[in-house]
Amino acid sequence: MNQFPEFLNINIGQYVEDFITWLMHNFGGFFHAVSSGILWFLLQMQNLMFFIPWWLVLLIVFLIGWKVKDLTSSIIYTLLILLVGAFGLWDSMLLTLSIVITAVVISMLLGIPLGILMAYNNVFNTFMRPILDGMQTMPSFVYLIPALLLFGMGKVPAVFATMIYAIPPVIRLTDLGIRNVPKEMVEAAHSFGSSNWQTLIKIQLPQALPTIMTGINQTIMMALSMVVIASMIGAKGLGLDVLGAIQHIDIGQGFEAGISIVFLAIIIDRLSQSVATRFKYPE
């Protein structure tokens, strides 16, 4: 009596596996094309990262920090980046940034239009909400399985898994930002003869931009939190250094790679939050 009845067991995992297999057999060419596109963009980003001299990277961080924050913050951010290089992890940091930037750019290109569609279509909104809930609560390791099956080992599945994990905030907050635009402003635009497209571009998106920027900030942070997990399927960078430290029980290497990820997270979070604040309270 204490055992759960076997006749109620549902092997839903088998259906998911069959679905992935069906996708591979019927849309293999599509996923190959997507993989090629992601890999091309990622390689271009990596080439750009490694083309910029280290001192110019420090200067760029200093100037951006000074522009969007203040002089003290810009000096601190520059010193943190300099410490990462002093740890001998400069190349790993650039590889990590290239993966994060690629995943975030793709997330923005897909997430913002989806958020707009959710704001305009309540049926689509109702359909997407449980999917986004699942994407945010599903253990991130689970994303690695379909990514491996569809794209194989390497950088592309790492970007794909990172994107799936990181995209929900920008979708949700784009939807929220547009819905929170005062109805009076939208009605006024329509009364002056603006089309839905003109109202979206000239009224709703500018008003929703601070909320959208907050969503982008959260997407960046979630993408950065995936670097260690993504290293398990072939992504190089700081995550691979952390993984290697775990495998060899190297406390020193683990601390240096881990604190470097923390430094990156602090810098990216503070700078992107400052940009979002400037959109909200323009000077």
UniProtKB/TrEMBL annotation:
Listed GO biological process terms: choline transport; glycine betaine transport
Q: How does it sit in the membrane?
A: Multi-pass membrane protein
Ranges of residues in domain ABC transmembrane type-1: 93-272
What domain of life does the native source organism fall in?
A: Bacteria
Checking Gene3D superfamilies in the record gives: MetI-like
Q: Which UniProt keywords apply?
A: Cell membrane, Membrane, Transmembrane, Transmembrane helix, Transport
Q: Name one GO cellular component term.
A: ATP-binding cassette (ABC) transporter complex
Localisation per UniProt entry: Cell membrane; Membrane
Q: Where are the transmembrane segments?
A: 20-43, 50-68, 74-90, 97-120, 140-167, 220-239, 251-268
A molecular function GO annotation: carnitine transmembrane transporter activity
> Pfam families, alphabetically?
BPD_transp_1 (PF00528)
Q: InterPro entries given for it?
A: MetI-like (IPR000515), MetI-like_sf (IPR035906)
> Which family is annotated?
Belongs to the binding-protein-dependent transport system permease family.
Q: This protein is called what? A: Glycine betaine/proline transport system permease protein
Query: What organism is the protein native to?
Result: Desulfotruncus arcticus DSM 17038
The lineage, from the top, is: Bacteria, Bacillati, Bacillota, Clostridia, Eubacteriales
